[in-house]
Amino acid sequence: MELEEAPRQHYTENEKQLIFNNEFMPHIHSMYNFGYRLTLDRDDAKDLVQDTYLKAYRFIESFQKGTNAKAWLFRILKNSFINDYRKKSKEPNKVDYQEVEAYYNSEEVDRLITPDLRVESLKDMMGDEISNALNSLDVDFRTVIILCDLEDFKYEEMAKILDIPIGTVRSRLHRARNLLKEKLKSYAKTMGYNNNA
Amino acid sequence: MAPSSNPFIQPDGKKPTCMEMLQLIIDNQVTEEQRLYFSQHMGHCLPCYKKYNVDMAIKELLQSKCCGGNCPDDIVAEIKLKINSMTA
Ligand SMILES: [Zn+2]
């Protein structure tokens, strides 16, 4: 399995149990949420989490004790999602990232970053608006928001989890935030806010 | 403020734009020094101040609404059971 390039470790059964319980299990709630946000289905999330933990145990000797277990587990889950789950689902074709890069570098960005969504309208979004907005994003955009805002990963960690360059992490995050904002703006409009003030 | 005191300046001397600084702040990829510098910067840069407040409000909303609760107990139990059968 294409996980960390760490040299193969040798652990006793007891050590394996300790690593599994003390370093892997504490992340199970984050992992479940990640699985859920990727699949948008509680049962699929459950399968993904279980699958990830079993793989993690099976390949525990490619994990170096005391290193970044959370990023390592997230990477396994993300790979399982792409290889096992996504293949089965009929997810429409992916975004053209060349276009995204071009977009990010263009002058047009400045026009779009005008803060025309108001904090007051966000304060009233106490229901499912934000969750629906997040779920409506393409899975690749959703993923970077989850990793950054919900899990507080660093660019370098996200790059490793997603197997993409740091520059792509940044541009994808930037684009994801703009898309999320557009979504929230349309919700705010239906809630009766005038965002042009 | 003297440009040399800007902790966002890259080793190659490139001065970051407001947007670049803001993204690092919102993405939480900054040092304490950079955070401090940016909060002073916002004091005299209205576009940054406005965008920061909107972006942070969204981020806080995400954190309070999208963390999805806990993993059901039965998954934890099932995983432990399967692991034990693997080691047996
Ligand atoms: Zn500024």
What does this protein structure show overall?
Chain A is an all-alpha fold. Chain A folds into 2 domains: 13-88, Rna Polymerase Sigma Factor, Chain: A; 97-190, Arc Repressor Mutant, subunit A (Orthogonal Bundle). Chain A is built from 11 helices and no strands. Chain A has helices at residues 13-24, 28-39, 42-58, 69-88, 97-105, 108-112, 119-123, 129-136, 139-150, 155-162, 166-190. In chain A, helix 9 crosses helix 11 (166-190). Mean pLDDT of chain A is 84; it is low at 102-112. With 88 residues, chain B is an all-alpha fold. Chain B has one domain (18-87). Chain B is built from 4 helices and no strands. Chain B has helices spanning 18-26, 32-42, 46-65, 73-87. Chain B is elongated and about 65 Å long. The model of chain B has no long low-confidence stretch (mean pLDDT 89). The chains are: A mainly alpha (197), B mainly alpha (88). At the A-B interface, helix 1, helix 2, helix 3, helix 7 and helix 8 of A face helix 1, helix 3 and helix 4 of B. The complex binds zinc ion. Zinc ion binds at residues 18, 41, 45, 47-48 of chain B.
